[in-house]
UniProtKB/TrEMBL annotation:
GO terms for biological process: methylation. Keywords: Methyltransferase, S-adenosyl-L-methionine, Transferase. The keyword Transferase applies. Residues 29-121 form the Methyltransferase domain. It holds the Pfam family Methyltransf_25. The keyword rRNA processing does not apply. PROSITE patterns: SAM_MT_TPMT (PS51585). One of its GO terms (molecular function) is S-adenosylmethionine-dependent methyltransferase activity. This is Methyltransferase domain-containing protein. Gene3D superfamilies: Vaccinia Virus protein VP39. InterPro entries: Methyltransf_25, SAM-dependent_MTases_sf, TPMT. It comes from Desulfosarcina ovata subsp. sediminis.
Amino acid sequence: MRGKTPWDDGSTPSEVIDFIDTHPPGRAVDLGCGSGTHALALAEKGWDVTGIDFAAQAIRIARRRAVQKGLGTIFVHGDVTCPGCLDGPYDFALDVGCLFALKSDERAAYAGHLSRLLKSGAWYLLFAWLPRFVNGRPWGISPEGVDLLLASHFRRTRMTIGEEKGVSAAWYWYCRW
C-alpha cells in the first residue's frame, strides 16, 4: 500500500456529518482514526480533535493530510485499548469500525478507557458490523453486546441497523452518564 488505506474510502458517513451539523464544536477523539478522514471533517467544523490508531502508516497519512489542510489536528500512533497518551476529558468520541474488531478482553479495556476519557454528558457515536463469520472466525458485535459493554457508563439514545457494502451493520448513539 502506498498512500492508500483499504479501510478508508475518503468520505465521511452522513451519520457523522449529521452529528457535526447538530452539535456545537468541542473536544473530540476519533478512536481507530485510520488516515484521518473523519477527524479532519470534525476539525474543519471547528472541533479540537485527536485521532488515535495502531497503524503507523495511517497516522503518517493523517498527519500529512492535516498539514495540507492547515489544521492542527493531533494524530497519535497508539492503542485504543490503552490510550494513556490521550488527554481527556472529551465532549465527543467517534468510532467508525474499530470496537467490533477487538477481542472481548480488549473491548472491556476499550470501554473502561472510553468512560474515563469522556466527560459527563459527552456523546459517543459508533459504527460496527453486526456478528457474522469471516474465514471461519466470529466477526462483529451485536447491539446487545455493545449495550452490555457500555451499560455502566453510557445510555443508548438511538440505533439504526442497515447494510453497508452488503453486510449488516449498525450505528449507535450513546450519551455518557
